[in-house]
Amino acid sequence: MSITDSPSAEGDMIRLRKPGGKIAGNRLSQILDELREHPDTGFGRPEPLKYGKRGYWSRQITVKHRLVYQIRKEEITVLIVQAFGRYMDKQPLSYDSFCRSTFI
């Protein structure tokens, strides 16, 4: 599978890989490598999200940070939408909302 990231997720991953974030950066790299082969099993305790976030999955990077992504089997793609912090609690996840929030 190929991996695509939203503009906001790209910024999140850069923040996690900054100096001082060695553990988070290493775990993120390990998760990204595994996503290509097994997007719904493996490292980081993958779990499907519920309620307004259905269709998305989460993996634990650290206690504080989660990787949130969508598996698009028809496109053979994993879309990463968030990597810094926990879930975006007050708004439903959608690729369009992530793109709009980046440019507003």
In brief:
The protein has 3 helices and 5 strands, in the order βααββββα. With 104 residues, the protein is of the alpha+beta class.
Give the topology:
Elements: E1 2-5, H1 7-16, H2 22-37, E2 47-48, E3 56-60, E4 66-72, E5 77-82, H3 95-103
Parallel strand pairs: 1-5
Antiparallel strand pairs: 2-3, 3-4, 4-5
Describe it:
The protein has 104 residues and is of the alpha+beta class. It has one domain (2-103): YaeB-like fold, CATH 3.30.2310. The chain is 34% helix and 23% strand. It is built from three helices and five strands. It has helices at residues 7-16, 22-37, 95-103; strands at 2-5, 47-48, 56-60, 66-72, 77-82. A hairpin with a 7-residue loop joins strand 2 and strand 3 (56-60). Keywords: Endonuclease, Hydrolase, Nuclease, Toxin-antitoxin system.
Name the features:
Putative mRNA interferase YoeB; single chain; nuclease; RelE/ParE_toxin_dom_sf; YaeB-like fold; alpha+beta; 3 helices
Tally the helices: what do you get?
3
The CATH topology assignment is: YaeB-like fold
Briefly note the structural class of the backbone.
Answer: alpha+beta
How big is the Rg?
13 Å
So what's the CATH class? Alpha Beta
